[in-house]
Amino acid sequence: MRDACQKIILPYTPENLRMLLLQVCDDENMFSHQELAYWCDKFTLHYYEYDADEKQWMSDMQQPDARQDLARSYAIAKDIGWQWYYYMSRGTTLSDIQYTDLHYLELPKHLFVRWLNELYEM
Questions:
Q1: How far apart are the first and last CA of the chain?
Q2: Does a structural domain hold residue 6?
Q3: Which position among 23, 28, 49, 122 has the lowest Cβ density within 10 Å, counted as fewest Cβ atoms?
Q4: Can you tell me the mean pLDDT for 16-28?
Q5: Residue 7 maps to a domain
Q6: What distances in angstroms separate CA 40 from CA 35, 46, 62, 63, one per listed residue?
Q7: Which domain of life is it from (predicted)?
């Protein structure tokens, strides 16, 4: 179990997402998977224009530059959040969610490896 008090206070950049995923893959993270999911939620909110304009996101995914890096990072951050909430809903009870600290929950490691590989495919 990771330190429940460790918050992730980093700018919402593709480089920081890579660094955080690498820390989890190397078992060097001092933050919980819950904190990472929350950071990823904020990452996607920071780049809300991709939700508002899916055509822009698709266009940026086709670009061989920093726009593709950002668009791919956005999609991965969104998937991390979705996977967290899905995993939480399947692995906890309503009572757990209401009365228990969920920092102990951890997503399967293979997901982090997959996300990191997807980021490095650029």
A1: 32
A2: no
A3: 28
A4: 96
A5: no
A6: 9, 10, 22, 23
A7: Bacteria
Q: Are 120 and 21 in contact (CB under 8 A)?
A: no
Nearest Cα to Cα of residue 10 among 84, 73, 58: 73
φ, ψ dihedrals at 6, nearest 5°:
-75, 110
- Convert the pLDDT of each residue in 30-85 to its tens digit: 999 999 999 999 999 999 888 888 898 889 888 888 889 999 999 999 999 999 98
Structure-token match 């330190």, residue found: 3
**CA dihedral (76, 80, 85, 89) positive or negative:** positive
Domain that holds residue 114: 14-120
Assigned domain for 47 exists? yes
- Residues, the chain: 122
Pull the structure tokens for residue 79: 């998937």
Q: 75 is written with which tokens?
A: 């999609």
CA-CA-CA-CA dihedral for 90, 43, 10, 6, to nearest 10: -20
